[in-house]
Amino acid sequence: MPLSAAAIVEAAHRLLLDYGLQDVSMRRLAGELGVRPGALYYHVPSKQQLLADVAHRILAPLADPPGTVGVEELMRRFRATVLPIRDGADLMLIAFGLNPGLPPVPALRRGLERLGLASGLAHERAQIVMHFALGAVAAEQNAALLHPTPETTDREAPNRETTGPETTRGAALYDEGLRLLMPTAD
Amino acid sequence: MPLSAAAIVEAAHRLLLDYGLQDVSMRRLAGELGVRPGALYYHVPSKQQLLADVAHRILAPLADPPGTVGVEELMRRFRATVLPIRDGADLMLIAFGLNPGLPPVPALRRGLERLGLASGLAHERAQIVMHFALGAVAAEQNAALLHPTPETTDREAPNRETTGPETTRGAALYDEGLRLLMPTAD
DNA sequence: ACCTGAACACCGTTCAAGT
DNA sequence: ACCTGAACACCGTTCAAGT
């Protein structure tokens, strides 16, 4: 069967999980799919749009969390989803630039309303929380990449079955940031 | 006189201000300096280190603010410094990965201690605030780049004397985030 | 409709050899 | 000491031409 946008997005997703963002190139993707680079552009408008689609696939599980999942837990899942992907936060920054309403934003907004914020305030707060989350994960990943700790040093090997750059230090910092941004004391 | 690391950093800085991060390439930089690309590597170990040095230059004015400058004002200056530079936040993310103690972090820590936080807590809070600031500016810039508003559409022209992607919306969101992260109600 | 071939205009980095 | 020349191993994107 011929190539399709969906097949390209899927291959890019696999490449991302196995080798990280810097190995997701249009030329390498074409090689993986047994096709010439130019062929991709018949199905996909640009690399940027392709990456945004991949981000959407990754974040889809965060779109409709059960009502029992609180806002903080939702954002912990966001971190846990993005952190194991090499340069995952950079990808998300690109994706949220293209589409600010990506998951988990709508669920985040609903959760904040459930906590008592009016619609407008919930919208504002959701963006603030999202900005913090993106910045925190990006900083955490860049730090891990540049001065790797023993536990984080698994280059060249695929990072699929790996714990990733998870650290208790990073998690605690993230949790404290979330706590400060939750609607309560103000 | 021969080339020097300082001259390269300065040329990279100028290129960044005039054309944005994606135009700061080792080859273009070499061209600007009238030299072959390989020559740069005699003075500078890598592009990444070079960019970190440029970031340091840009943030230097935020290192020692007068005691009258509060924490929120300091962070507003950080945003005002980074926002007009095309992909400035991406650059800062690279730089803070390489060196988490870059300005305005030390001043931020001191300011938070002045507001009553113990040293350890001030350190923690400074990182949280910094993560938010980096995420917020990065999101703001990526959004401006991808769906430009009329006021923001100044491609191809140098962005030196330009207002940049400043918006009242972005500023208000940023201020509110800072407010929530300031030590008071808890 | 879908893809190839080939080009356009680039990258970061290394390193023997020249001066 | 400082730089060139030349290579290595790549990029994203376009588009006439083929099937």
Automatic annotation (TrEMBL), chains A, B:
The lineage's top-level taxon is Bacteria
Q: Which residues form a coiled coil?
A: none
Region described as Disordered: spans on this chain: 147-170
**HTH tetR-type domain: which residues?**
2-62
Task: Indicate the residues that the entry says bind DNA.
Answer: 25-44
Pfam name, any one: TetR_N
What are the alphabetically sorted keywords of the record?
Answer: DNA-binding, Transcription, Transcription regulation
The molecule here is called HTH tetR-type domain-containing protein
Source organism of this protein record: Nesterenkonia aethiopica
